[in-house]
Design brief:
Blueprint lengths: L22 E2 L3 H31 L2 H25 L31 H12 L1 E3 L6 E3 L7
Parallel strand pairs: 1-3
Antiparallel strand pairs: 2-3
Helix pairs in contact: 1-2, 1-3
Length: 148
C-alpha cells in the first residue's frame, strides 16, 4: 500500500463574530457634562415635588423656597442640556444621542423598563462610562482610544 502523502484538511467556514466592538465616542467630556446636568435636573425635580408637597401639607414658606429652587434648577439645567445636547450626534447614524426623537429605536438599544431610552443611556453612562446609541444600537465608551 502506497502512502497517500499530503492530504489537506476539510475546509471549515471561518467563524465570524457578530458582536460589534465598543467604539470610542469623540466628544466624551461634553457627553459626560450633559449626563451630569440631566441627573442634576432630576434631583431638582425631586426637590420641587418635595417642596410643593411640604408647602401644601405644612403651609410653611420655607417649603415654597425649596420648590422654587428645584424648579429653577430644572429649567436652567434642561436649557443648558437643550443647547449642548443638540451637537452630540452619533458618529455612525448621526442621531442625536441625548435627544429622544419620535422615530423607532434600535432593537439593541439599552432601556430599563420604567425609564426612557435617554434616561437609561444617562444611567448607563454614569455607572459604566459607556452607552448604546438608541437609534443604531452601536456601543460607545468614554475616554481615550486604546492603542492596539
Amino acid at each position: 500500500m502506497k502512502d497517500p502523502g499530503f492530504r489537506p484538511a476539510e475546509p471549515r467556514p471561518r467563524e465570524v463574530s457578530r458582536e460589534r466592538r465598543v467604539r470610542h465616542f469623540p466628544h466624551s467630556l461634553k457627553l459626560l457634562v450633559v449626563a451630569l446636568l440631566l441627573l442634576l435636573a432630576f434631583f431638582g425635580f425631586l426637590a420641587f415635588v418635595a417642596g410643593a408637597a411640604g408647602m401644601v401639607i405644612t403651609h410653611l414658606p420655607e417649603w415654597g423656597w425649596l420648590a422654587l429652587g428645584g424648579l429653577a434648577l430644572v429649567v436652567i439645567t434642561r436649557g443648558v442640556v437643550f443647547i449642548i445636547g443638540e451637537s452630540l450626534t452619533c458618529p455612525l447614524c448621526h442621531g442625536a444621542v441625548m435627544r429622544q426623537r419620535r422615530c423607532h429605536k434600535h432593537a439593541e438599544a439599552f432601556r430599563l423598563w420604567p425609564l426612557s431610552h435617554r434616561a437609561s443611556a444617562v444611567l448607563s453612562l454614569l455607572t459604566t462610562f459607556g452607552f448604546r446609541c438608541m437609534y443604531c444600537g452601536t456601543a460607545y465608551r468614554l475616554g481615550k482610544r486604546r492603542s492596539s
